[in-house]
């Protein structure tokens, strides 16, 4: 339960950074500007740089993991509290948001959450017995999904005037981003009190006793040059390219076409329990000798979902009121659940594999190394894809009078006020989203057979193949 709670509060700032804020920005920002904001998520992929410090520096009186978890959560609470006073104005959809200030603030929040993740990952290896270590990825999946649910689904729904009017009969939204951040402050303080009161438990240090910062950095370098690790790195850095256009742009495109944010919230409400169920099922499948088999199945499922997504966007019934009574709502809901099934299978499966091969003496850093590469695989292409969508797109202002088209000039999808003032409509003559999606899918299908062989080789390696050279000599 403690692990699930800690991963949940970690998911609160991540859900805002990766999902909610980009949707709030879309109505007044270009894809290039959203690409700038996506840089706020990079600390989650760079946490390996400081993870040895988290593993090696701590107070024995407080505990190896609580020495970091307690102050980090308090700093997060303080940062969220002060941010709440000006965040609504910064994300104001009626005027150009201050992208760079917003990016800097969320960059700092994600850095704190990423550092907490290092400590919690290492704590998970000692809280769970070796035979139950595959459950660590299930706890992470459930916790992060709950955090994302609160920061994405619940927040967007209760901050949407349409949702509150249609489903709660309220004339005004219940939540603003400012109020939500203040509520998160209370959650962080409460959980921190619980962590202070709960003991850390016995910490196992592995073969070499207490490690030093220099020693951990040395072992990280040794691990990185292992032949087994090089193969795993290639898989982790390339496996999410196929999905990046869908994950980053599809929901934004649907919102552009009129698919309400309240519908996204309803989707996530339905998707949340399904992901929890998928996580439990996948954890059971990962208990055998081949924990990566569900990962490969999930990869294929996601390829299919991402191939169908552009069709769902292209055939969106513009002009219709898409709501829970419209057939399109259920069609896209089905596609969303298929993608969630594949995504959860991949996440839980790779997490179970990470827990199995990690060395407990540098557990936080070892898992961070692996999770960093896994996260980086889904982050490094994101900036380029969002930027490329804008570069490859072409919009023109058109107005039809009888059989003639007039006002034919280039316009900006972000700011079409000049076109509207002239009585025209800013239409996409060429949409870069489709080109980017096709490019990603070609790469994804091209790598399919490589991944099949790679996971077979990875699962066939002995546990000693993953140990640092310095520890291997001691065994």
TrEMBL record:
The chain crosses the membrane at residues 6-25, 68-87, 99-120, 141-159, 179-199, 220-244, 292-316, 328-354, 366-389, 432-451. The keyword Transferase does not apply. Keywords: Membrane, Transmembrane, Transmembrane helix. InterPro entries: AcetylCoA_trans_1-like, AmpG_permease/AT-1, MFS_trans_sf. One of its GO terms (biological process) is acetyl-CoA transmembrane transport. It is found in: Membrane. Gene3D superfamilies: MFS general substrate transporter like domains. GO terms for cellular component: membrane. SUPFAM superfamilies: MFS general substrate transporter. It is a multi-pass membrane protein. It comes from the Eukaryota. GO terms for molecular function: acetyl-CoA transmembrane transporter activity. The keyword Ribonucleoprotein does not apply. This is Acetyl-coenzyme A transporter 1.
């Amino acid at each position: 339960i403690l692990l699930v709670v800690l991963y949940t509060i970690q998911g609160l700032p991540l859900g805002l950074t990766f999902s909610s804020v980009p949707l709030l920005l879309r109505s007044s920002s270009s894809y290039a500007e959203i690409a700038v904001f996506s840089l706020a998520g990079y600390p989650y992929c760079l946490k390996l740089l400081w993870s040895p410090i988290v593993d090696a520096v701590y107070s024995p009186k407080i505990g190896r993991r609580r020495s970091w978890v307690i102050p980090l959560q308090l700093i997060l609470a303080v940062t969220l509290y002060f941010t709440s006073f000006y965040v609504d104005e910064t994300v104001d959809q009626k005027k150009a948001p201050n992208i760079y200030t917003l990016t800097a603030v969320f960059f700092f929040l994600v850095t704190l959450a990423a550092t907490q993740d290092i400590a919690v990952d290492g704590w998970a290896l000692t809280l769970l017995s070796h035979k139950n270590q595959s459950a660590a990825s299930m706890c992470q999946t459930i916790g992060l999904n709950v955090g994302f649910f609160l920061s994405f689904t619940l927040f967007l729904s209760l901050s949407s005037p349409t949702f509150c009017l249609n489903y709660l009969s309220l004339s005004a939204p219940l939540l603003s981003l400012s109020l939500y951040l203040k509520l998160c402050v209370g959650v962080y303080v409460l959980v921190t009190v619980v962590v202070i009161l709960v003991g850390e438990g016995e910490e196992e240090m592995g073969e070499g006793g207490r490690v030093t910062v220099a020693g951990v950095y040395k072992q990280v370098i040794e691990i990185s040059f292992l032949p087994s690790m090089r193969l795993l790195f290639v898989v982790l850095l390339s496996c999410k390219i196929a999905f990046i256009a869908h994950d980053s742009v599809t929901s934004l495109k649907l919102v552009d076409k009129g698919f309400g944010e309240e519908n996204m919230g309803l989707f996530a409400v339905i998707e949340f329990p399904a992901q929890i169920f998928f996580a439990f099922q996948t954890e059971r499948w990962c208990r055998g000798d081949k924990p990566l088999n569900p990962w490969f199945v999930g990869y294929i499922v996601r390829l299919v979902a991402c191939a169908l997504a552009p069709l769902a966007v292209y055939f969106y019934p513009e002009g219709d009121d898409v709501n829970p009574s419209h057939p399109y709502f259920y069609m896209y809901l089905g596609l969303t659940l298929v993608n969630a099934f594949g995504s959860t299978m991949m996440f839980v499966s790779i997490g179970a594999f990470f827990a199995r091969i990690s060395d407990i003496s540098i557990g936080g850093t070892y898992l961070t190394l692996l999770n960093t590469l896994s996260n980086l695989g889904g982050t490094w292409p994101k900036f380029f894809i969002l930027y490329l969508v804008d570069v490859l797109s072409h919009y023109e202002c058109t107005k039809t009078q009888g059989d003639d088209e007039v006002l034919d000039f280039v316009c900006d999808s972000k700011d079409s006020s000049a076109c509207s003032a002239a009585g025209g409509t800013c239409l996409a003559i060429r949409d870069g989203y489709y080109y980017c999606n096709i490019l990603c899918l070609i790469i994804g299908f091209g790598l399919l057979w490589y991944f099949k062989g790679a996971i077979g080789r990875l699962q066939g390696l002995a546990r000693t193949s993953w140990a640092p050279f310095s520890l291997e000599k001691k065994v």
